[in-house]
Each structure stands twice: as structure tokens, then as C-alpha cells.
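[stage:ingest] chain + small molecule (NAP)
[stage:ingest] validated
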Amino acid sequence: MIWSGFTGAYRTAAVVPAEQLTPVPVGVSLEQAACIPVAGGTAYSALKQLKVAPADVVLIHAAAGGVGSAAVQIAQALGAGVIGTASEDNQDYLRELGAFPVVYGPGLAERVRAAAEETGPVTAVLDAVGTEESVAATMELLPDRSRAVTTVPDRQSQEAGIAKVRLEDGRVWEAAALAAEGLLTFTISQRFPLIEAAEALEASRTGHVRGKIVLFP
Ligand SMILES: NC(=O)c1ccc[n+]([C@@H]2O[C@H](COP(=O)([O-])OP(=O)(O)OC[C@H]3O[C@@H](n4cnc5c(N)ncnc54)[C@H](OP(=O)(O)O)[C@@H]3O)[C@@H](O)[C@H]2O)c1
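[stage:predict] done
[stage:export] C-alpha cells:
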């Protein structure tokens, strides 16, 4: 079973309410299933909130991370095109996921505009990093702020009119169904035994994880 609670997951056994459980889809490994609820569920919720449809081109800030890499795949499953931002090291990774890759850093909005000449103009934005730069680029590229959502809500995103992601009921089921169809898979960049949870957190805090880190019992 996949448990979709947010805290208290660092343990080998737990008693949780049945309604918080989602079956692991047939053909999906336990470590892939472990990545589904937070990263997959959040990405699914954000794209549903944006009402992403086939005519869209979605700009995803931090597209190589857990939420971002899931969003790249789910947006395409919904029929949309994707421009994703990442460092130079992750440009090929984004290309493999099917996104048009753009390097973040000074000149970001210009580079996204150049990418949009290939993909079509950006019609929606998911910000999974919430930097001054990503917020500024969203403001510059997306006049209709009702089509922007962030997983990192703060004062600057609020002032920019970027909505905070609302987690949808049923998001874990939907993300699990996409995983079952082979439309959502996670790159697991590192695995740590539970006893090394602190090291896993340190690795996560670098802010440069590709895909997900998995803890195993
Ligand atoms: N509200 C919610 O329900 C919810 C749920 C899940 C997550 N979140 C939040 O959403 C954020 C993303 O979560 P996550 O799990 O996807 O994080 P993550 O996996 O740790 O994100 C790491 C990724 O961020 C990229 N990155 C770092 N600096 C960047 C920059 N300046 N511009 C663009 N990309 C950059 C890195 O790419 P490079 O290595 O290429 O730099 C890396 O691939 C976190 O702040 C998290 O707390 C909120």
C-alpha cells in the first residue's frame, strides 16, 4: 500500500487510517510507489489546478526535481508541451523526459522566449523552486497570472499573484494510475537505509537532487 500522509513516514511499521492508503499498482515497484504520493500527487494537483490541456505549453521551474520531473511527465500525459528549467548538468535529463530544456540563471526569461519559438508560447507555469528569478520570469512571461501555480508559496509569489498549489482529493490514485500506465516514473538518484535518514536529508538539502531520494527499511 502507498501511504499518503505527510509526516511520520520514517519508520518501518505504522498504523494509519485506511482512507489514506492507495494500492500499489500492479507492475510498479515499491520504491517507485514510494515516490508517488508527494512528488506525483503534488505535480498532478498543480497541473489540474492549472487546467492543463493539449493546447498548452507549460513552463516548469525546477523540472529536474521530484515534483518537477513528475510534472514534466504528467503535463505530457495531459497532451501539453513542456519547457523545463534546470542547471546545465540536467539539460539532457530534461530532454530525455520530453521537455524542452532551458538553463536557469541570469537571462532566464529570454532563453524561455527563445525556446517558445520552438514549442509555442508559454500558457501556464508551475514553479517548484520559488526563487526571485523564477517568480520574475513567470511575471514577465505569463500575463495571465491565473495560470501560474507554485509549490513554494511565500510573500513574493503572493504579491506576484501566483496561486499556491491546492492538493486535490484523489491525487495519489491518479498519479498511481499514470505510473501503472508507464506514463510516470521516477529517477532515483540515491538510496539510503532508514538508519541514514539524516544523511538523506543532507543530500536533499543541497537542492540539486535529480528525481528522488529513497529511504529503505
Ligand atoms: N505544497 C506542497 O504540497 C509541496 C509538496 C511537495 C513539494 N513542495 C515544495 O516544492 C519544492 C520542490 O520540491 P521537490 O521535492 O521537487 O524538490 P527537489 O527534488 O529537492 O528539487 C531539486 C531540484 O531543484 C532544481 N533547482 C535548484 N535550484 C534551482 C533554480 N534556481 N532554478 C530551477 N531549478 C532549480 C535542481 O535542479 P539542478 O540540480 O539542475 O539545479 C533539482 O533538480 C520544495 O520547496 C518543496 O518543499 C511543496
